[in-house]
Design brief:
The structure holds two protein chains of two kinds. In chain A, about 45% of the residues lie in helices and about 10% in strands. Chain A is an alpha+beta fold. Chain A has two domains: about 5-50 and about 125-175, Alpha-Beta Plaits, CATH 3.30.70; about 55-120, no CATH class. Chain A has a four-stranded antiparallel beta sheet with strand order 2-3-1-4, with helices on one face. In chain A, α3 (about 55-80) runs antiparallel to α4 (about 95-120). Chain B has 15 helices and no strands. The chains are: A alpha+beta, B mainly alpha. At the A-B interface, α1, β2, α2, α3 and α4 of A face α1, α5, α7 and α15 of B.
C-alpha cells in the first residue's frame, strides 16, 4: 500500500444501526465521515452533527433576480423600447405585469434549487473511489454504509476499523483513493 | 368487483406497501421492466403509438405546408380544436404536479408510489399542449416572436396581453416540471446503474445518475431542493391554469368574461388529470405487476379526489348560469341559454352528464374500489372535460354580436387527426418511460416503509 487510502468503508444492516453508528462517531469526535443509505433517514443530520442546508439562500437570491429582471424587462419594453398603446391601457400597467413577474421568479428559483443542489453536492461527479467497491453497489438498493475518510485527524486504519466494528458494523474494508 | 371491505379505522394508518416487501425486493420489482425484454403488449402498444405519432406529424406537416386554413376555423370562431386540445392537455398535466407538489407539502405519504408516474404524465401532456401552442400561430418558423428576443425589427411582445402571460406560464411550467421529475429520478437512476448487468445500461444510467451515491450530506441538500421545488410548483400549478383561463376571462366576450374562471379551471384541470392518472394506473399496475405499490387504497383515494373536484366543477357550471341570470345582462344570459339549448346543446349535455353525473357514483365505496367501473368512469371524465373546453371555447364564439356573422363550426379531418395523433405523441413518450425508467419512485417508497424508520424493531406499533 503506497498511496494514502481514501478511508474506511463499514457496512450496517439496518437504518437504526446506521443512525446509532453515526451518533457514536460524532461523539467520538470524528468529523470527516459520511453515511450512505438508499433513502434519507430521519434524524441523521443530527446524528452526524452536520449543519443545515444553505440551499434556501441560493434559491432566494435566484428568485429575487427573476422577479427584478421581470419587472425591469416589462417596464423597459412597455414604456421605452416599444411604446404602443393597446386596448387603452397605460404604458406602465403594473397590474398586467404581475403574471410574468411571478413566472420568472418561479423559473429562476427552480433553477436555483436544482442547480444549487448540484453545486452543493458536487454533482455531476462521474468518478468516486467508492464506485470501485462491489459491496458499495447495494447502497442504492438495500445497503447502509459509513465511510471515515483518511483526512480526519482522528483517522488511523487499525483503531478506526476496530471502532467501526464496535459500533456494530458487519464488514469493514479499506477504500483506495 | 372487489370484495367489500369494512369501514377503515381512522385511528390506524393504511399500509402503503403490501405484499411483505423488504428494501431489496422493492428495487427488484420496480427495476424489472427496465432490466427485462419488453413484453409483447408493450411492443404492440408502442407500434400503435408510433403510428399515431406519424399521424400527428403528417397533419402538422400539412398545416405548415398549407397554412392554418386547413383547420375549420373561420370568423367568428377563431379558436376551435386547437385551443380545446391545448387546454385539455395542460389540464391533464396538472394532476401530476398536484400529486408531486401539493400532496408532498401536505405530507400525504400515499403519493410516493404514484408521483413518478403522474409527473411523467405532466411532462408529456405539456409537450402535447405545446404542439398546439406552437402550431396554432400559423407560421411556426417565427414562433420565437413569442419570446422577448432582441431582433432587427425592434419589435417587442405586448406584456399586457394574457396570451403573453400564457407563453411565460406554460414554458415555466414545462421547465419546472421537467426539473422536478429529473431530480426525483436521480437516486433511482443510480439504483439501476448499480444493478446494471450490461455495459450500455451502466454507462447511460450512470451519466444521468450524475454520480449519486446516497451520501447523507447529499440527501440533506436533495431533500431541501425537493421541498423547495414542491413549494414553488404548488403556486405555479395554480397560476398556470389561472393564466390559461385568463386567455378567456380577460376578453370581453359573454360566457368568457367571468371571475369564476381561474378557480373553476384549476378544479377542472385537477379533475381531468386525476382521471387520466387512474386510467393509466389501472393499466400499468396490471401489466407490470405493481399492485403491491399501487394498491386499491391508492385508487380509492384518487377516486375520492375525482368525486370532490367533479362536484366543484358541477358547482361552477351551476354558478355560471346563476350569475348570467343574476347579472341581468342580456348578452350574458343569452350566451348561457344558447349553450344549453342552442345548436351546440348536444355538446353541453354531454359535458354535464360526463362531468357532473357519472363521478357522483364514487359516493359508493364498492364503485370506488371496482377496477372496471373506475376505469370506465375515468375515461368518461376525460371525454367530459374535453367537451367542457369545447363548450366554453366554441359556444361563446359562434354567436357573434353581429347576427350576420353567426356560424356553425365543425372541425376538418386535419383537426380531428391532429387530436387523435396527439395521443400518439403522448403514448410514445409514456411507453418509453414505462420501459426505460423506474415507474415508481424507489427511494421514496422505501422511505415510507415501516422498516425505514430508524426506531423500527421488526413490528408495527
Amino acid at each position: 500500500m503506497t498511496n494514502k487510502p481514501f478511508g474506511l468503508l463499514a457496512e450496517y444492516k439496518t437504518p437504526g444501526e446506521l443512525l446509532h453508528a453515526a451518533e457514536r462517531l460524532r461523539d467520538a469526535g470524528y468529523k470527516q465521515f459520511e453515511t450512505y443509505s438508499p433513502f434519507p433517514i430521519h434524524g441523521m443530520d443530527n446524528a452526524m452533527g452536520i449543519n443545515d442546508s444553505i440551499l434556501g439562500w441560493i434559491v432566494v437570491t435566484c428568485g429575487a433576480t427573476g422577479l427584478l429582471s421581470a419587472i425591469a424587462l416589462q417596464t423597459w419594453v412597455s414604456t421605452s423600447a416599444y411604446r404602443i398603446v393597446t386596448s387603452g391601457k397605460l404604458l406602465f400597467s403594473f397590474q398586467a405585469f404581475v403574471p410574468v413577474c411571478f413566472e420568472l421568479m418561479v423559473l429562476l428559483s427552480g433553477f436555483g434549487a436544482v442547480f444549487g443542489m448540484f453545486f452543493l453536492n458536487g454533482l455531476p461527479q462521474l468518478y468516486h473511489p467508492l464506485f470501485k467497491k462491489p459491496t458499495f453497489r447495494t447502497v442504492t438498493s438495500h445497503g447502509f454504509f459509513v465511510t471515515v475518510e483518511s483526512t480526519d485527524p482522528r483517522f488511523s486504519i487499525d483503531d478506526t476499523a476496530r471502532f467501526l466494528h464496535e459500533t456494530g458494523s458487519t464488514a469493514v474494508e479499506v477504500v483506495e483513493e | 368487483m372487489s370484495v367489500s371491505v369494512p369501514i377503515d379505522d381512522p385511528s390506524k394508518r393504511v399500509t402503503l406497501v403490501e405484499g411483505g416487501h423488504d428494501f431489496k425486493s422493492v428495487s427488484d420489482t420496480v427495476c424489472r421492466p427496465v432490466e427485462t425484454k419488453a413484453p409483447k403488449w408493450w411492443m404492440i402498444s408502442f407500434g400503435i403509438a408510433v403510428s399515431l405519432l406519424l399521424l400527428i406529424l403528417s397533419m402538422l406537416g400539412k398545416l405548415v405546408w398549407s397554412g392554418v386554413g386547413v383547420w375549420g376555423l373561420n370568423n367568428p370562431v377563431m379558436w376551435g380544436w386547437d385551443l380545446v386540445g391545448f387546454v385539455f392537455w395542460v389540464g391533464i398535466g396538472h394532476a401530476g404536479t398536484l400529486i408531486s407538489a401539493i400532496l408532498f407539502l401536505f405530507r400525504q405519504k400515499w403519493r410516493t408510489s404514484i408521483n413518478r408516474f403522474a409527473e411523467a404524465m405532466t411532462v408529456f401532456a405539456v409537450i402535447c399542449a405545446g404542439t398546439y401552442i406552437a402550431f396554432h400561430v400559423g407560421r411556426v418558423w417565427v414562433a420565437y416572436y413569442l419570446f422577448p428576443i432582441p431582433n432587427s425589427m425592434a419589435i417587442w411582445p405586448n406584456f399586457r396581453s394574457p396570451l403573453m402571460w400564457d407563453v411565460f406560464a406554460v414554458s415555466t411550467y414545462f421547465t419546472i416540471s421537467l426539473l422536478f421529475w429529473f431530480v426525483g429520478l436521480i437516486p433511482d437512476l443510480a439504483t439501476i446503474r448499480d444493478r446494471a448487468t450490461t455495459k450500455t445500461r451502466k454507462i447511460w444510467y450512470g451519466i444521468f445518475a450524475m454520480g449519486w451515491r446516497g451520501a447523507n450530506r447529499h440527501w440533506m441538500n436533495y431533500e431541501r431542493a425537493y421541498l423547495i421545488l414542491a413549494a414553488l410548483s404548488t403556486p405555479l400549478v395554480l397560476s398556470v391554469h389561472s393564466i390559461v383561463s385568463f386567455d378567456f376571462a380577460v376578453s370581453q366576450l359573454p360566457g368568457w368574461h367571468t371571475t369564476i374562471f381561474p378557480p373553476y379551471f384549476v378544479a377542472g384541470a385537477i379533475f381531468s388529470g386525476f382521471a387520466m392518472v387512474v386510467t393509466l394506473m389501472v393499466l400499468a399496475r396490471e401489466l407490470f405487476g405493481m399492485k403491491d405499490f399501487m394498491t386499491m387504497h391508492h385508487l380509492e383515494t384518487m377516486n375520492k379526489i375525482i368525486l370532490a373536484t367533479g362536484t366543484m366543477v358541477g358547482y361552477a357550471y351551476g354558478m355560471e348560469f346563476f350569475m348570467a341570470w343574476f347579472s341581468g345582462n342580456q348578452y350574458e344570459s343569452y350566451a348561457f341559454l344558447n349553450r344549453a339549448f342552442g345548436p351546440y346543446s348536444w355538446a353541453y349535455w354531454t359535458m354535464i352528464s360526463c362531468n357532473v353525473i357519472f363521478p357522483q357514483l364514487f359516493w359508493f365505496k364498492k364503485i370506488r374500489r371496482s377496477i372496471p367501473i373506475m376505469f370506465i368512469i375515468s375515461i368518461i371524465v376525460n371525454i367530459g372535460m374535453w367537451f367542457e373546453r369545447f363548450v366554453i371555447t366554441v359556444t361563446s364564439l359562434h354567436r357573434d354580436f353581429l347576427p350576420s356573422s353567426w356560424f356553425y363550426y365543425s372541425p376538418t379531418y386535419v383537426e380531428i387527426c391532429q387530436f387523435i395523433g396527439s395521443f400518439g405523441l403522448f403514448l410514445t413518450f409514456f411507453l418509453l418511460f414505462l420501459k426505460y425508467l423506474p415507474i415508481i419512485a424507489i427511494s421514496e417508497v422505501k422511505g415510507v416503509m415501516p422498516a425505514a424508520n430508524p426506531h423500527y424493531h421488526g413490528e408495527e406499533h
